[in-house]
Amino acid sequence: MAVKIITDSACDLPQDLIREYDIEVVPLLVVMDGKEYADGQDISPEHVYSAIRAGKVLTTNQAPAHFFRRVFTECVARGMSCIYIAFSSKLSGTCHTGMMVARQVREETQGDIEVVDTLCGSLGQGLLVLEAAKMAKAGAGKEQIVARVQELARHMEHIFTVDDLDYLRRGGRIGRASAYVGNLLNIKPLLHVKEGLMIPIEKVRGKKKAIKRLVELVEERCSNFRQTIGIAHADDVTAAQYLKELLQTKFGCKDIIVNVVGSVLGCHIGLGGVAVFFLNKALAAT
Description:
alpha/beta
């Protein structure tokens, strides 16, 4: 039975890869001026970042159940096995909604639907989706793909920095005073994702120093530099290119995917963030 790979718009994969591997993307929602927009369909990252620059406050909502129902039922009707590779359940209710709808559709149709909570986001999630899609295209079975994604998800590193600490404050990541002082002193926090949640690592003064520190952390944690590495940026192509060049020069990395952070995640990190995603050394030891 053919396997269909499904994900959500938090994965931040470039559109050319989504088209090449026929990946179905369920959109999360952006709320602006009281109206909901489907991420990647009704609104683009460019619209979101322009709105942020204009001083608008945007919020987000999880993907609604009827989005999942349409995708799952269509795939089942085509006689396909479905694997939904989801945004971290610790950061959104989208994964749980997908699980609920998958259970309902299975009961109604006896369809073959699996949901994987990656505990990842952005291109950390996206790299897992890409691996699954490559396996599906090569003819791998559902169980083999699910096992591979679950294994890689445990070793996917997300290391990033942001420009404006106020966005982390709004999300409850840091206090009001820390955000105010940090912005005055040009402090750039470094964070990573652990067990699905964003966790601070340290603080660095200045954007270039923060990016150089990202590279040092890659060196400390990366399993090998021949793997596909992801770079995502919140409307800062210059920072992403600088990070890419450092990785290429220092480690000889050749397979690097660079993409803008999507509309939903962009609402939560603001302008100027940059992140790197890769498999860590613990994977090599397993």
